[in-house]
Specification:
15% strand; three-stranded antiparallel β-sheet; 384 residues; alpha+beta; six-stranded antiparallel β-sheet
């Protein structure tokens, strides 16, 4: 005991604070989540029930046939079509957890559904695993030093770093899997020719949400790992957190590449042309618990705290966006009445994983009208 106290004292002298194990609950695979005992945490049960009722009453307004919802949602895009798997969705579902204990849940939390751009936060995590493993030395490295097949040729694309791709401010120019970057979410003003032949922004200066460029990141990481990214995610993270065997990560039907003589699928970071991550609410919660617990599942470190800190730092062109995680900083996407330190994954149709490390709170929602998420989270905090 004296030696432990002495070590703690010496560490504090060196300017480091010891990481204390938190009393979180981490369910084993196929083990149910534990519901919090009465009086285990201080919160207003009725207020929390009000928040849950709000989530159930504000279901995403578009069709449960996601193929139809996708085509309608992105009908402005030229040449837009479904290129990968889709799935009809279920109704509203979600979980609210404190320190890993369930305070409330609703809907079918075991149902596997598309999760759209929540996939981006999983993709970002695969990049973090690559840096932790030394496959990427630093996210400020130029991607052309790792991928030399022409994807990053040219004066503009050669400047792009991993960080630019992760923060969606690369303005990468080109075509991947038959999709042109300029055709993805074109601006409301001006003609397509103006957008197609516009002057490119210097990498790192302007954020533009663009799935073609996100898929360039996925393709580049596939080249670095030299194996399909779903295998990396499964082996390095999902198996270790006891995720079910039901989740799937898809790419477009034709998105095949050859590495080391093997044909492998390059996955997508979203689902607005189909594909992306298909996963249950409960497995989303398991993923969120790793970030709630600073990179650890129970006491096993799976992804470094250094990576999580980098991934949740505001980018220069968008204070509300880090490495494919949204941040509740004061900006265009700030949620009023909600702590600024929380961060979250967000996807089309109202899919969210909200992480508050300081308060041990984790929220997962499925099919909540996206414009209502700020009010929902605010109501959760009002319960405390």
């Amino acid at each position: 005991m004296k030696s432990i106290l002495k070590l703690t004292f010496l560490i504090s002298l060196l300017g480091y604070a010891p990481i204390m194990a938190q009393d979180f609950f981490f369910p084993e695979r196929n083990q149910p989540w534990k519901t919090a005992n009465k009086n285990q945490f201080k919160y207003d049960v009725q207020h929390l029930e009000k928040a849950v009722d709000f989530a159930k009453a504000n279901e995403y307004s578009e069709s449960r046939d996601l193929r139809r919802a996708i085509l309608k949602g992105f009908e402005r895009e030229p040449f837009h079509e479904i290129l990968g798997p889709t799935k009809k969705r279920g109704g509203p579902a979600g979980m609210i957890l404190k320190d890993g204990y369930v305070l409330a849940s609703w809907g079918d939390t075991k149902r596997v559904d598309m999760t759209f751009s929540v996939t981006k936060s999983f993709l970002s995590t695969v990049a973090g695993l690559a840096e932790d493993a030394g496959l990427i030395q630093d996210t400020k490295d130029k991607v052309a030093h790792y991928v030399w097949d022409g994807t990053f040729d040219g004066e503009h694309n050669a400047k792009i770093t991993w960080e630019h791709l992760l923060q969606q401010n690369s303005d990468w120019s080109g075509e991947l899997w038959g999709l042109k970057d300029w055709a993805d979410r074109p601006p409301n003003e001006g003609g397509l020719d103006d957008w197609k032949f516009r002057k490119l922004n210097e990498p790192g200066t302007v954020m533009e949400y663009n799935d073609v460029r996100v898929n360039v990141l996925a393709y580049s990481l596939t080249n670095v790992w030299r194996k399909p990214l779903p295998m990396v995610l499964k082996e390095r993270l999902m198996d270790k957190i006891g995720a079910t065997t039901t989740w799937r990560w898809y790419g477009y039907d034709h998105a095949w590449t050859e590495i080391d003589g093997l044909q492998m699928k390059s996955v997508t970071g979203g689902g607005h042309s189909g594909a992306g991550l298909f996963i249950s609410t409960e497995d989303m919660a398991r993923f969120g618990m790793v970030f709630l617990n600073h990179g650890k599942w129970d006491r096993e470190l799976l992804i470094s705290q250094e990576w999580i800190k980098k991934a949740t730092q505001p980018s220069v062109p968008n204070v509300n966006y880090g490495y494919m995680w949204w941040l509740n900083q004061k900006g265009l996407r700030h949620w009023e009445g909600v702590p600024e330190h929380l961060f979250y994954a967000a996807g089309f149709g109202g899919n969210f994983i909200v992480v508050d490390q300081k308060n041990g709170l984790l929220m997962v929602t499925r099919w909540l009208e996206p414009s209502k998420i700020g009010e929902f989270v605010k109501q959760v905090y009002e319960a405390f």
